[in-house]
Known about the structure:
Layout: E1 4-15, E2 18-31, H1 33-43, E3 46-47, H2 52-60, E4 68-75, E5 83-85, E6 108-112, E7 117-121, E8 127-144, H3 146-156, E9 159-160, H4 166-175, E10 183-191, E11 194-197, E12 223-227, E13 233-236, E14 242-249
The site of one 2-acetamido-2-deoxy-beta-D-glucopyranose has 5 residues, from strand 8.
Amino acid sequence: MKAAVAVLLFLSLFRLSFSLYRKHFFVNTFKTWEAARTYCREYHDDLSTVNKEEAQLLSANPGVTYTYFWIGLHISPNNPGQWIWSGDEDEEIDNWDIDEPNTYTEKCVVVKKSNSKLHNAMCSKTRPFYCMQVFEPILVHQNKTWDEALDHCRQHYTDLASLRSQMIMAEAINNTITSQTAYVWTGLRFMAGHWYWVSGHNLQYKAWSVEGELQCPARDLRCGALDRKTFIWRPNNCEDKLNFLCLKKL
Ligand SMILES: *[C@@H]1O[C@H](CO)[C@@H](O)[C@H](O)[C@H]1NC(C)=O
Ligand SMILES: *[C@@H]1O[C@H](CO)[C@@H](O)[C@H](O)[C@H]1NC(C)=O
């Protein structure tokens, strides 16, 4: 659907013992909660599961111009009184607005844009909504140059992994335990004067060695690898053949 606006927000969470990436897409079309869920399940994974931090990021999207938007939270059909995520995640629900949830006839949940808090609402109301796509990092046990690794990830999964937060780093490090090479490729690349993630994100969280980010790496050291022993990023020769971390759709 053309009206869908992709919002590129990658976030991580811990779900029991492992973490996942969620990418959220704002759908600027008014639908009932059920119709929104059907849409999300067809075009993505599900209606969005959001923690407090994500609720803030999704609300801050300037493309959201309405007071409320649907997320994947609703009353359990089997256990009225229990709020559950459509995607079945056990993400904590600690973000209700004051005096919410407030009536048991309102069985679905919106986020109020102005304060990023949860409100329960009639499921038959029509609201714009967020869908999510869920990913997990996966280590590929093949030795490839950075360019080959990028091609492989894009062909078989979605992309080389961006290690954009401490939580994602922790998960990535966990995934490199079985690596056959001391370093593994990430989606980090130096071009036109700066380092960036191939996914298009800027570097905010950084895990360079103590010498810090190389402002002008040598011509042959312009691809970023993760050192699986010291857990830091290093500028590496792009032609080295290493194992690599892809992002896989769940
Ligand atoms: C890493 O893996 C171990 C066992 O597979 C698990 O217990 C631990 O919680 C994982 N840590 C992260 C950050 O995913
Ligand atoms: C990749 O390289 C490592 C280190 O050089 C080697 O031990 C491993 O067997 C290689 N893996 C494959 C699949 O060729």
